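Lab notes, practical 5.
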Amino acid sequence: MAPKLFTIAIAGNPNCGKTALFNALTGARQSVGNWPGVTVEKKEGFFELGNQHIRVVDLPGTYALFANAEDERAAVDYLLTREADLIVNIIDASNIERNLFLTSQLVDMQIPMVIAANMIDIAEKRGLHLDLDILAERFGVPVIPLSAVNERSITNFISEMAHVVAGKKMTPKAIDYGEKVEAAVKYLEPKVEPVAKLLDADARWVSLMYLGNEKSYADKFAEAKVQINKAEVTQILGEESEFAMADSRYSLAHEIAGKTILSNRSKRTWSDKLDSVLLNRWASLPIFLLVMYLVFWVAVTIGSAFIDFFDVLFGAIFVDGLGYLLTDVFHAPGFVSAILADGIGAGIQTVSTFIPVIFFMFLCLSFLEDSGYMARAAFVADRFMRFLGLPGRAFVPMMVGFGCGVPGIMGSRVLESKRERFLTIFLVPFMSCGARLPVYALFAAAFFGTQAGTVVFALYLAGVLFAIVYGLILRRSLFVGEASNFVMELPPYHLPKFKSLMIHSWLRLRDYVIRAGKVITIAVAILGFLNSFGFVDKLYTEINGEKTEIVKSEEGYAMVQDEKEVPLPEGVVIDESKVQTESEFTAGNGDSENSLLSVIGKAITPVFEPFGVESNNWPASVSLFTGLLAKEAVIGTMNSLYSMAGPGDAAEAPKAAEVAAVEKVAEAPAPAAEPVAVADSADARHPEQSEGSSEVAVADSAVADSAVVADSAAAKKAAEAPAAAEEKPLIAGVDECPAEEEEEGGAPDILGAFKEALGTIPENLSEVFGSLTDILGTSGELEAQNAAELKKVTLDKILDAKAITCEEYASIETFSEDEGADKAREEVFAKLAAAGLTLSEDEIGALEEGDLSETADIYANLRSYFHNPDKNGNPVDGFNWQVFAFLIFILLYVPCLAAMGVVVREIGLGLGVLMAVVQTILAWAVAVLLYQVPVGGNVFWIVSSIIVLVATFVFLKLFGMSANKKGRFED
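Output from the prediction step:
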């Protein structure tokens, strides 16, 4: 049997350097978990002390051990197990008197102990000279001077600890608390004996705990059926027991501190000078907002620069690579690849994309905590947050939530009260995370033009306002109570150590990946399964006596062999009367109308119809499902499904809208040079566009009508030119070009993917500092989408000119950087100019910068499906409330699975489901009101949504009364 590890428990007040010592001793050899039954972090690590392997447990930082709050209960319960062979009690040498309150409680437990007087260097700089021998003699244990951020001091501490561990363990001297307290202890000892047995503790310690706080281990007193006559205890003490015990402990601390501090020549320190500025009445708030802005900017902007690296690399390994191994190497069935590669593999890929943002967020928070500013930030924000029933430190997780909800929710762990922690978690998702921004930007650019930035800002502001209102509702229903008294020590400022920051950030990141990642990966796999599998109708007939799958196209029938189309055998003619249709459950239906997810989306579309999602707009419903994976997936899903479903049936709207649009086009000013128009107007190409988007139609028409062919002289000159040896046809549409043959599948290039992933880092970082004044990234998103839109219009204009070949078109569509590509493009532009079509610098720039793979026809499709109809289906001019209501729903409904995974991890499955359901119901009701009141005008849905809101509040109130009666949200 292996010998028992020697275990050291580190205990101390918050901000006393406890974690710094733990990191210095253990380095990266740490594990982070939870204490049994609570969500308080439990950190363990190991280090070598001579030839002995030492286990270190970092107890929660606490000012006292009354076993009421979760952190106090976790610390006491652990110490009661006697698993720790030695307690290292860290005290702040620069504020020794306050720290000795906890020390006296640890002494009462009679466990071998060592006192580490940390920040001894800061104490000396402040003019404090301490006689640590007096402290050691008073408590009967060794006292070691320490500076946990100094390597030499750590080395000396380890050397001293080696002697302690190797020698006889010294149990602290019992403390005499005075005649009255000792009399009360003697009275209580026989009465609390049954409780002491349950706790496997000393009766004197249980008595002292009761005197300090009668609620300490109240559950154990009830279990042991022990009742104390409080009046008799008060009579013995002459006052309330809590006051008497606190007075005795503070008197002891004051006495010992007075003897230990030999001289106190108080000096004005750097911390005092910094606080005179950072906590200045007028400057504190602007500085605080600036610091929070920088935290947000670093976490979101710099963190996002590394997202593509993880996305590309993990996608190549866990999706493409795993899929290749399963399909081509092991020849596994398609459904296996769909579940493992497209499901679980995609889930791992999704989790990986959150790694950089979360890491940089924790890095920033660790820096603020270790530097000492976090306590100041909480102090500054306390006044506003108290309005919501929260302490000031709750502001930080909410601020971080603007970058990503996952680290924002995890950041709520800094809150000590369970009620406040849960309330913060309920509110963080209302902060618009970075994943929602591409959705906002796309819709804003498509529908709101120059007001796009204002609309995006309004959505961010709406999230904050909803959080305030919802917070007030929760404070009066589910999480009833006032904000806890905000008492926080302001520690001296430190310059954090790089090693400590990295260790702290890495451990929190690892905790996210292991714990939240499990939930996220499973959930993503389930959605991936629903998106991949579905029922597909297949055609079968008999060919040469065998049942054979066939497909029908414009050219006729073809056979399917090994999932590829092959020509029919010579002489075989298909008899359509013998063709049978069979519905099969297959994989590989991702983002198609055959997938189970699409079937579900079509089925639930009526639920979203009250806020403007019409029955033919089922792709929007499906996108709300895939938005659970990540909110930005809404765009990709819509684009894929719209391209297959075709334009929306806006033609059902009255023809007056189309007539008006055509009349506006007709009124557009003609070009000065009297060009010959060769393209239909935008309305002719997109008859489905509504009157609400007629301005876009006019713009498209104007661009199309400006496309011209050569004048008669140029045409004559071109006709007289000698024909090329192999003249290639000029094209008027991409469909005239032969389709590119797809390359045969093969092993994915993992090394190439790694190089590509690495290449994204410097490219993304190069754009980082330009975002300091655009932290939301709206300008970049809108510029990209406008460039893509202009590129599409420009390409249409070039095609309308019918002046270039397929190869020439490809050279300007892809804007390749291959050798000779620039020269080829110059020749194309010259050819277009000779044909009378001169491109502007903006148009040439759009050809180079625009990315059609992201936007393509999605603008036109969005406008055809979201045409702001009233209750009769007529498009309504002005602000598109249909779109705004849809975006508000995306803002408010259930957070993405990554965030929900962390929510369940923090507050449990039951409350997590409640949060998701209530939030989605509120999102639905608010979106319905935003659409129906100004545009829809359906009284039934307006009244129904109001009833839903009232009913939800009543439910929260009743549920809260029951939960609070049971003490579910008490510490």
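Observations recorded by the TA: The longest helix spans residues 498-532. The two ends are 40 Å apart (CA to CA).
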